[in-house]
Design brief:
By secondary structure, this protein is of the alpha/beta class. The chain is built from 8 helices and 5 strands; from the N terminus they run αβααβαβααββαα. Helix 4 packs parallel to helix 6.
Amino acid sequence: MSNRPSIPRSVWSRKSARVLAPVLTLLLFWSTGSAASDLQRPPILAFGDSLTFGIGGSGRSYPDVLSNAMNWPVRNSANLGEVSRDSVERFRRTLVQSKPLPRVIVLCIGTNDLLQGVPPEDLLSNIRQMLAMARSKRVNTLVLAVPAVGSGASHALFDQIEPSPGLIVDKLTLPRIARDPLFRADLVHLNAEGYQRLAEGVHDALKTADWVQ
């Protein structure tokens, strides 16, 4: 039998706790770090209509692809069939209710207006109202110009929106993708590969502008 004095269990428990505490803290950080990081990063707001929703994409939308590619939260705020007149009020409500404010807004509006024969000057006025709201909140905005009906180029009205600090107007990406039958689900919407390419174009624009890390 050993004559070595026994150590009370309470002492072993205190020693174990001191040893294990840093390990448990590290494990907790690893398990929750990603979620905490997402909570700390303001989301990208993808605001638009059925092209933003992802109609034709077989469950894939460009905001979903963008979020996965960037490891960044992207909120898909899309309303099917919406014309810009109705978008203005929804955009205002969305900004008011967004806490925190978006890091970036990607605005893709106008297809339904053009298909329904809304005068281009009305569409331009509505887009400018939304851009003014974003500017008042100091939120950087990327405008995705939509193609003119029956054309492979962006509508001329987007030439009247002047880029400025905090505002990019991309007149190439969506029209270039939409005019290729390989990337279209129908005459208006993209397919899954088309939305993949749209997300890549948006990602490139945001990185070039240094609006996200």
